[in-house]
Specification:
The protein is mainly beta and 178 residues long. Helix content is 13%, strand content 42%. It starts with 14 loop residues before the first helix and ends in a 13-residue tail after the last strand.
């Protein structure tokens, strides 16, 4: 196997350099929702990470300029929705104008926890914020999973600045991990 050369080397990377570097990693597309006195809030995220199985913890980044930050920080609750491969319009909607995020009642409803629930997702986690860690222009939210639901739906994936469905090709490893 021959080495693939890096296209650019910089000692002090710019924001553009970092976006390009981080964009090389494929990530799943999530919508994070919450609700408070001003109603439902939500945003698209690609930074969900499993932190621990015992206790069940996940983390996600939330920008300090996010319109959802105050509500999620104040209530300490968030629902994390892994979008299905056909839910690109939702990823785009929740990444844009907050006034349009909850306009379609056929797409979401309030769940038993009082959180906005998006219908038809691949997975959904109901969480309680465990900690908010100051991290530059964002906070890293560490959240304890209180409830999880999954389906067999294939996820929507984000890579190199755009969204795609997973290829239905054969996995690179055997199903048992051998």
């Amino acid at each position: 196997m021959s080495a693939i050369p890096l296209t650019r080397v910089r000692p002090d990377p710019t924001t553009t350099d970092l976006r390009a570097a981080f964009g090389r990693a494929a990530s799943s597309a999530w919508v994070i929702t919450g609700s408070g006195e001003r109603g439902p809030v939500g945003f698209t995220a690609i930074s969900i990470v499993s932190v621990s199985l015992a206790p069940p913890l996940v983390s996600f980044n939330i920008s300090k300029s996010s319109s959802s930050l105050v509500t999620i920080a104040h209530t300490g609750r968030a629902a994390l929705h892994l979008l299905g491969e056909d839910q690109l319009p939702l990823a785009e909607r929740f990444a844009r104008d907050r006034a349009q995020r909850f306009v379609d009642d056929d797409v979401w409803h309030f769940d038993d926890h009082g959180l906005p629930a998006i219908r038809g997702v691949a997975s959904r986690l109901v969480t309680r914020i465990h900690d908010l860690v100051d991290a530059g222009d964002s906070f890293v939210a560490i959240a304890r999973v209180e409830h999880a639901t999954t389906s067999t739906r294939r996820p929507l994936v984000h890579h190199a600045g755009s969204y795609a469905a997973l290829s239905p090709q054969t996995p690179l490893t055997a199903p048992n991990g051998a």
